[in-house]
Amino acid sequence: LARVRRPYRLRRLTGDTGAVVLAVVLLLWWLLPVYNMMLIALDPEGDTEFTGDIWPAAPTLEAFRGVLFQRYWYLQDFWHQLGNSFVIGIMTMVLTVLIASLASFALGRMRLGTGSVISTAALLVYMVPAYFLVIPFYLLMHGYGLMDSLWAVIAADVTFAVPYAVLILQWYGRLIPMELDEAARIDGASPGQVYVKIYLPLMAPALAAVGTYALLTAWNEYLYQFI
Known about the structure:
Blueprint: H1 2-42, H2 48-51, H3 62-68, H4 78-109, H5 115-122, H6 134-143, H7 150-173, H8 178-186, H9 191-202, H10 204-220, H11 223-226
Helix pairs in contact: 4-5, 4-7, 4-10, 7-10, 8-9
């Protein structure tokens, strides 16, 4: 028995060691760009990354003060721009979660015969590159009088985030037994009550993942904001 346990312990120790080493390597790989940006930010000349030094000779927070107090011409609207980014990101997240949860509830829980066809058709949006839709979106928002408006950017971001969100919520929703919905309807619950009191609480992990995805999508998007 001891002879059998010894190879097992060795394999387990080797596997654990390999996992730790891989985790450390991935952590360093992730932290390296952050460390490089910190070096540039703390260096008054901004050339530490080219000298090979691991730390600036005279670190300073002047760059951070320049940003916080908008001391340079290209930072005159920094706080206003940052506020716009938060508004776009948060509204995109909220609307994506709301629309996608309602759509996935209707397609997955109301037993629509064409539910899978509709959700698959929504994914066809991703077959068209986002760059090809710039001009149609521009003309559409111009027609509605939404040019130079945050709502135009929010509408574009929500359009690209919702199909993927619906797909994720539909697949996650299949893990929730339909018997819960049927039991609630037998007790007199309306579809709206089933959605609010049963579907949303049980879908909380998926909703959090979808909301995070929508927020990051809107935060990293630049083309439509620029247009």
